[in-house]
Amino acid sequence: MIKEDQGIVTGLIAGFYDVQTSTDTIRTRARGVFRKNNLKPAVGDHVKIQIDDQGTSYLVAVLPRQNLIGRPAVANVTQILLVMSAVQPDFSLQLLDRFLTYFSWKNIAVSIFLSKSDLVGISDLDKIQENLNYYQEVGYKVYFSKKEVASNLPNDIGSQQIWTLAGQSGAGKSTLINSLKSGLHQETGIISNSLNRGKHTTRTVNLFSLGKGYLADTPGFSAIDLTPIKINELCNYFIEFRRASKFCKFRGCQHLNEPKCRVKELVETGEIKKSRYDDYLLLRKEIENGKLPEYLK
What Gene3D superfamilies does the annotation carry (predicted)? Predict the structure, then answer.
């Protein structure tokens, strides 16, 4: 007699899949049909499994995905916890806007965590916090300390939600996850001074139970490619631009040289951060050129 069950893939190891069902974690193999159809189940996938009388189990079906991001990939991501370091590597608004644009394009919500704030001087920290206050004002949740993450994140992760850590290599993702889940002891890396970034220390993806859902650790998204974005849609992925564009004179305004552009008016008054607008223009050029900027290669 074959028993069927459903669950979430929480880990991959040496060709096996760990599937969390409502009652247990089951290590299983995928049927050969997946290889034949060039389909690989990913961490975060909702799947069907079958278990025979001898206790042998097989992963037999992957249920429809909401999304698939990263490399190695995580499926069905509800929200990104974007780790941005204050120093080592240095805080970068340009990189922050790049991440936010990418995940907005993927239609995945983002919260921001400022790591390593204890390693930077007070005046530099004040400037970083002032910048991040703007992102709070336009709608992003910002955690300013590890203590704040530990206190709030388990309550912020809803039932069966999958939150994924993302951020530049060396920003402190593994250090953060160690502080959230005792006993994980994720390997942490040393920063390369010449590159101002760390080596990838996370080579696989695992889901860890946190709050009512899961948290995933992933390798750093250090070279996000935005060139597939349609250039006339880019402005929609800046959330404050999207709101303001309702009041532009022309429908489909690209916020460049059009008259009575509400976005440009708000940039002039300082209600939209000028660095956000400047980064928008840089990303437009990148999409037009069709290649990653040199600093990401």
Answer: Nucleic acid-binding proteins, P-loop containing nucleotide triphosphate hydrolases, Probable gtpase engc, domain 3
Is the separation of the CB atoms in 86 and 116 below 8 Å?
A: yes
- Cα atoms in the Cβ-side hemisphere of radius 13 Å centred on 128: 26
Residue 235 is assigned to a ligand binding site: no
Pick from 30, 46, 62: which residue ends a domain? 62
pTM here?
Answer: 0.85
Asked whether residue 169 is marked as a ligand-binding residue, the answer is yes
- The answer on whether 14 is annotated among ligand-binding residues is no
15 exposure class (CB count in 10 Å sphere: 0-12, 13-18, 19+): exposed
117 annotated ligand-binding residue: yes
Distance in Å from the first CA to the final CA of the chain: 54
Domain assignment present for 47: yes
- Model confidence band, residue 223 (pLDDT cutoffs 50, 70, 90): low
Residue 170 has pLDDT above 90, yes or no: no
Q: Which of 216, 203, 209 is nearest to 20 (CA)?
A: 209
**171 annotated among ligand-binding-site residues:** yes
Alpha helices per DSSP H over the chain: 32-36, 93-105, 122-138, 146-156, 173-180, 239-244, 262-269, 274-289
**Residue 143 belongs to a domain with what CATH number?**
3.40.50.300
Domain that holds residue 287: 231-296
pLDDT tens per residue, range 44-54: 999 999 988 77
Q: Would you place residue 193 in the very low, low, confident or very high pLDDT band (cuts 50, 70, 90)?
A: very low
